[in-house]
Amino acid sequence: MANQVGGLNAKKQQPGAPMKWGVGDVISRGDRAFSKFAPMYMLWQAIAEIFYPERADFTSKAPPGDERYWDVFDEEPMLLRRNLANQIGAMIRPRGRDWFMCKAYPRHLNDDDEVRIWCEDASRVMREVVYSSGSNFSRAFSESDNDYVAFGTSIVTHTYNHNKSGLLFKCLHPRDCAWNEHADGSMDFHEKMTISLSQLDEMGMVIPNELIKAYNEDPHQEIEVRRCTYPVARYGGVGLPKDAKFAVMYVAHGVRAELKPKSGQPSFFRTWPYLVRRWQTVSGEPAGRSPCTSVSLATGRTLNQAQLAIIESLEKLVNPPLLAPDDGIAGEIQIRANGVTYYDATLNYGSRNPVTALEVGRPDFGMEYAVERRTFLARAFLQNLLSFPQIDKQMTAFEADKIYQQYMRDAAPIFEPMEAENGELMEAVFERIYDADGPTKSGGFADPPDVLLEGEVKFEFETPLSSAYRRMKFEQAREANAYIAERVQLNPGIVDLIDHDEMDREALKALVPQSWVRREEDVEATREQKQQEQLMQVAAQLALQAANAGVGGKPGEAPQLPSPDPMMAA
């Protein structure tokens, strides 16, 4: 029996076997995880105050609707964060476009018609699930992109909805999440939730004895509940199904008690329910950092103070401070509009005026500084790298190719981590649809063809990098065509060195959707049909000439063959 106080498992562990966790172990690991994240919360609070005030509640919770902009004097950092988040969403998940595609691996399986059709149908099913009205996908990832840009870390959950008819996506507050990574790359994830006692009862949880009195007095009282999700190998209890991969334990942290289901069936997941997005990672830190706010936090703070100084300086210019002698003034100096100040004209003020305005600073200097800092902020938020290269018509194919290669080198560090996260997300969505209750053994998908059972399904994504790569292939094709045209007179056989069909297929990928390009076997069938039609036409013309020669032609005159169709000869 587990020792619930210390969290130790009294059952003797087998050497080399994973340690089984009890309630105390789970609570202890959660406390350590959140303690380890505490310095990150301080950093994220400082970042949020400048770049994302709506999320500036890491160190203290603010009520909904609380204004958090009192100390913000320059909006440029917030605008750049918002714009980059929107750009990332539009680039890696463009709505209305097929930004992900199921592909069979090894790649040669995609040559099979049944496999290709099944992958296309699976992609369609996944798009319908992801963008269904109740999935919350777009909103969750809009919030996630803003966290990702500001903090470099974002957490999205994907679970079945209440009746398991679809998926539900939700972006979690980074403040409410912590995790411990294991040597094999897995993790135990701890999520804070605020739930009322009545909701716990409706969820089918047994109210612990320590909370029975509170439940009877006020069933709507909210408590902190932690959900820990961890590999099933660490699960110390019984009752999990064989296909469970992750055990789940709910804990009422205030009383340090486990919340058990009334059904007696332990909670579990077959698919890991969290997408932990980490942009720039640093050894020894569990969370990611944003390469944008990391290099611009100091500038954001300085720009905020500079803007405050400019505002104060402009206010002094419009309503300057006044200097007046201590004698000869009747009453207070009137600095309001149309105010009149009386002074004794018989007094000798010498060369000075009785009331004068003080000289103030130069706000134009501050404005020039603010413009320079805003330019730096734009570079820090990658605005100089996100724009797709613009190719001038006067450029040669070689020059255009070099521009695209440079763009790919600059943009790869930005988009490669995002492509990996997209892959992790889509694999999890695929698993959930496959495991769902559906009309076939494959859940929401049609049963795959037998040949696909020997391979696996992976995903390819439409990103600026893939677009630039296709455009680079197009420019290489143009350059090759120019070279062939230059050399063909000296070496006519150079045309035979190139697989023109393959080159044109690669080039067309940059110009038209892939669905517009016909499959190789369809093209070959069309060409064979045209060739047969040409042969039949030639035969008919030969027969006609022979008949004409037999009726009115000259004896012994050979029939004339028609000139070949240049299009068919090609």
Low-confidence parts: 1-11, 566-570
What's the main sheet like?
6 strands, antiparallel
Helix content, binned percent: 40-55%
| Residues in β-strands, percent | 5-15%
Task: Provide a descriptive summary of the structure in words.
- With 570 residues, the chain is α+β, with helices and mostly antiparallel strands.
- The protein folds into four domains: 221 residues, no CATH class; 93 residues; 120 residues, no CATH class; 42 residues, no CATH class.
- It contains 14 helices and 17 strands.
- The strands form six sheets. Strands 6, 7, 8, 9, 10 and 11 form a six-stranded antiparallel β-sheet that branches. The protein has a three-stranded antiparallel β-sheet with strand order 5-4-12.
- A hairpin with a 4-residue loop joins strand 1 and strand 2.
- Helix 11 runs antiparallel to helix 12.
- The longest helix has 39 residues.
- The chain is flat, with a radius of gyration of 36 Å.
- The N and C termini lie far apart (81 Å).
Give the secondary structure arrangement, pairings included.
Layout: E1 2-3, E2 8-9, H1 23-51, H2 76-92, E3 100-105, H3 113-130, H4 137-151, E4 153-160, E5 167-172, E6 177-181, E7 187-196, H5 197-202, H6 209-217, E8 222-231, E9 246-252, E10 257-259, E11 268-269, E12 274-278, H7 291-318, E13 322-323, E14 329-330, E15 342-343, E16 356-357, H8 363-380, H9 383-386, H10 397-435, E17 456-461, H11 464-487, H12 500-508, H13 520-551, H14 566-569
Antiparallel strand pairs: 1-2, 3-17, 4-5, 4-12, 6-7, 7-8, 8-9, 9-10, 9-11, 13-16, 14-15
Helix pairs in contact: 1-7, 2-4, 7-8, 10-11, 11-12
